[in-house]
Amino acid sequence: MIDGYKRRIDYLRISVTDRCNLRCVYCMPPEGVKQTPHREILTLEEFGRVVDAASDLGINKVRITGGEPLVRKNILKLFQHIAKNPGIDDISITTNGVLFLQMAEDLKKSGLNRVNFSLDSLDPDKFKEITRLGKFNEVWRGIEKAIALNLHPVKLNVVAVRGVNDREFGDFARLSREMPLHIRFIELMPIGECNPWAVDNFISAEEIVRKLQQEFGPLQAETKVTGNGPAKYFRLPGAKGTLGFITAISEHFCSTCNRLRLTANGQLRPCLYGNQEFDLKKALRRGAGRQELAELIAKGIRQKPGQHHMEEGWSDLRVMSQIGG
């Protein structure tokens, strides 16, 4: 479906839970956040109904997110349901990787096509510091398993934070040279827990590119990386993987945004940084059929804003894990 700004909206990101088994410093406080009561979270069947209705509007790509999606009980059933929909040709997941190794083969059998791992450091001690609870080796074995299962492209999402992981950019770049991994440097967004200090810790993609070029020389532009996101990709000469840059702050990519977000409690959110939401849970629980759900989703698409307004500040009381990564 085409929105009011002539963008084709074909990508739905579904947050299946607001719960997470890590406490990353830029995402939530050490004690975590108040969890949404279970009865307020959509059931897996309800998520499936939304996907079916969205597919009637031309949504053909679905990403499962959280919180941490793999902590959701019986999550494989949702993958299996989506995989049976002939209108969906791409099913992916964003995960912190803690539980991925033990679930990887079942996820692939259930329809998973590819995976993004959130990994902000290659140093085990620094990784523990950033995540507060994570064990690097658990995640790394999951990444190796994803490569072995050909869940390509396997991407690593690296939130760039000055004074935290800015000395590791070269290490990530070398990793892309040695392994078929697609490293994506993501500008720190002033959302939730990181909002008060995002400005002081912000590093632009331009600065990261400059640092990498000083060490490795000119980067080669790359256009053949599968995905639905806004990253601009480059490659080191002879590298097996690529380097991507997501410029949410320094260079808006709103003109090409093709996505909708569905929160765990059933709110359709046309823009991550907008406050407008459409209540699908209420419709689902009063028995709305597939056509009515599609009409509600279409309304959300028609009202999708032309661009975000991050420069005006974050006014939502929720953190990223409560909205959907």
Automatic annotation (TrEMBL):
Keywords: 4Fe-4S, GTP-binding, Iron, Iron-sulfur, Lyase, Metal-binding, Molybdenum cofactor biosynthesis, Nucleotide-binding, S-adenosyl-L-methionine. SUPFAM superfamilies: Radical SAM enzymes. Pfam families: Mob_synth_C (PF06463), Radical_SAM (PF04055). S-adenosyl-L-methionine binds at residues 26, 67, 118, 189. Its EC number is 4.1.99.22. The keyword Iron-sulfur applies. Its cofactor is [4Fe-4S] cluster. It comes from the Bacteria. Pathway: Cofactor biosynthesis; molybdopterin biosynthesis. The keyword S-adenosyl-L-methionine applies. One of its GO terms (molecular function) is S-adenosyl-L-methionine binding. Residues 4-219 form the Radical SAM core domain. [4Fe-4S] cluster 2 binds at residues 254, 257, 271. Gene3D superfamilies: Aldolase class I. CDD domains: Radical_SAM (cd01335), Twitch_MoaA (cd21117). Binds 2 [4Fe-4S] clusters. Binds 1 [4Fe-4S] cluster coordinated with 3 cysteines and an exchangeable S-adenosyl-L-methionine and 1 [4Fe-4S] cluster coordinated with 3 cysteines and the GTP-derived substrate. GTP binds at residues 13, 63, 94, 155, 259-261. One of its GO terms (biological process) is Mo-molybdopterin cofactor biosynthetic process. It catalyses: GTP + AH2 + S-adenosyl-L-methionine = (8S)-3',8-cyclo-7,8-dihydroguanosine 5'-triphosphate + 5'-deoxyadenosine + L-methionine + A + H(+). Monomer and homodimer. Catalyzes the cyclization of GTP to (8S)-3',8-cyclo-7,8-dihydroguanosine 5'-triphosphate. NCBIfam families: moaA, PRK00164.2-1. Belongs to the radical SAM superfamily. MoaA family. This is GTP 3',8-cyclase. The lineage of its organism: Bacteria, Bacillati, Bacillota, Clostridia, Eubacteriales.
